[in-house]
Write a structure and sequence with these properties.
- This protein is an alpha+beta fold and about 400 residues long.
- Helix content is about 50%, strand content about 15%.
- The chain contains 13 helices and ten strands.
- The chain has a four-stranded mixed beta sheet with strand order 1-4-5-8. Strands 2-3-7-6 form a four-stranded antiparallel beta sheet, with no helix packed on it. Strands 9-10 form a two-stranded antiparallel ribbon.
- The relative contact order is 0.10.
- The site of flavin-adenine dinucleotide has 19 residues, from strand 1, strand 3 and helix 13.
Length: about 400
């Protein structure tokens, strides 16, 4: 598959150099939990990225982005994924990237002015508040948070968790039931809620795999205790919440999968470097062991195949739309998450005790990217959906 034009190859090479030279050296600050220093240094790097024209790769040019297709952005996402901090540096980190996309598509001019423009500029951050502790996130048509109309306002009451990046976010896009009697796909709406609204309470940052994180790298529990916002904060039409969420997920899954491939590539490099450097007996590097050779060959094959699958799905979305690509997207979501787990596991094992430390990013990824098999739809949900559609063709 021809993956990139000459111009795109140059862009990719320059972004890669930027990530290697400017961003990867900041990783120890994240691994050592030095969040304040990290954010200050990252703010400088973001200015550099902006001045180089590498800002918002997936956002149309008229909104100040690079205007890349999904296929092209996928390739950028892979390079950014090589670092723990790559996506944040170019302001295309989840969940802000998805929020930007839905605001561009569905926000009113006033909403765009107030929420989208500062988000695009990198002046504020946001979060997406859908999952609830009391209800299954894997069935997003079932939730308890309600937005009741009162005069010109909505009054939102509910309990969410895993709102990634809520700490320090300026606003949340909240999924809430606006009509409990409607068809299950039309019950919920998405509503913009400023985090300084009365009744918005960040209960805690949930500890995830031993870390609470900070700022954009945190997962928060939130109580919406009668939060009052004007009805003009509704995103799109009432009852369109589920549809907008689905729209957000197609491209989002391509971004994630290509980010995971970037992680795989970095872990693969680290594994191979360790294999040739580490001697298990004088003059005998780990690389001589057949087990390691198997890991190298298997990982190479799995990563190459995964990349082709994801880029193929991205191209299909670009050319034929999300609906046509829904099976491809379901397949890559669980398949690439599995490749990621296996490659990280081999890379960690090849490093021995060093792999368990935070001297490399492998352990961080090993812990945190276990979630790849859960967020944006657990493996089982994707497998079930795609298998049902395949089997229908045989009936
Ligand atoms: C790191 C991280 C970040 C997240 N960020 C956000 C965010 O920013 N905003 C947000 O709203 N949410 C976020 N989430 C939540 C995420 O979307 C949900 O965790 C996910 O949708 C699964 O929902 P659940 O956790 O309630 O699991 P449940 O729905 O309770 O499912 C539990 C398990 O049951 C199994 N299962 C469920 N349904 C089926 C089925 N139909 N067939 C077979 N097996 C099934 C699966 O194995 C699944 O893992 C995040 C989660 C993580 C881990």
């Amino acid at each position: 598959m021809e993956t990139a034009s000459l111009e795109m190859k140059e862009v990719l090479a320059t972004i890669r150099e930027f990530v290697e030279k400017e961003i990867i050296p900041l990783e120890p600050l994240l691994l050592d939990h030095e969040y304040e220093t990290l954010m200050t240094r990252l703010a400088e790097k973001r200015q550099t990225a902006k001045s180089l024209g590498f800002w918002l790769p997936q956002i149309p040019r008229e909104y100040g982005g690079m205007g890349l297709s999904l296929f092209e952005h996928g390739q950028v996402s892979e390079i950014l994924g090589r670092s723990l901090l790559g996506h944040y540096a170019l302001n295309c980190q989840a969940p802000d990237a998805g929020n930007m996309e839905i605001l561009i598509e569905h926000a009113t001019p006033e909403q765009k002015e107030k929420y989208l423009m500062p988000l695009l500029a990198g002046d504020i951050r946001s979060c997406f508040s859908m999952t609830e502790p009391e209800n299954p996130g894997s069935n997003p048509t079932w939730m308890s948070t309600v937005a009741a109309k009162d005069g010109n306002d909505y009054v939102i009451t509910g309990h969410k968790w895993f709102s990634t990046g809520a700490e320090g976010a300026a606003f949340a896009i909240v999924m809430a039931i606006t009509d409990p009697h409607a068809d299950k796909y039309r019950r919920a709406s998405q509503i913009i809620v400023p985090t300084d609204a009365r009744g918005f309470r960040l209960v805690r940052k949930t500890s995830v795999m031993g870390e609470r994180g900070a700022g954009w790298a945190s997962h928060c529990e939130i109580e919406y205790d009668g939060v009052r916002v004007p009805q003009s904060n509704l995103l799109g039409s009432e009852g369109a919440g589920f549809m907008i969420a689905q729209q957000r997920l197609g491209p989002g899954r391509i971004h994630h999968c290509m980010r995971w491939i970037g992680i795989c590539e970095r872990a693969f490099d680290l594994m191979c470097e360790q294999a040739v450097r580490r001697e298990v007996a004088p003059g005998h590097p780990l690389a001589e062991q057949q087990t390691i050779q198997n890991w190298v060959a298997e990982s190479r094959a799995e990563i190459n195949a995964a990349r082709l699958m994801v880029l193929d799905a991205a191209r299909k979305i670009d050319e034929k739309g999300q609906y046509a690509a829904r099976d491809d997207v379901a397949l890559i979501k669980f398949h690439v998450a599995g490749v990621l787990q296996r490659v990280l596991d081999r890379a960690l094992q090849a490093h021995g005790a060093l792999g368990m430390t935070d001297e490399t990013p492998i352990a961080f990824w090993f812990r945190h990217e276990r979630a790849a098999r859960i967020y944006d739809g657990p493996d089982e949900v994707h497998k079930r959906a795609v298998a049902k559609r395949i089997l229908q063709q045989y009936q």
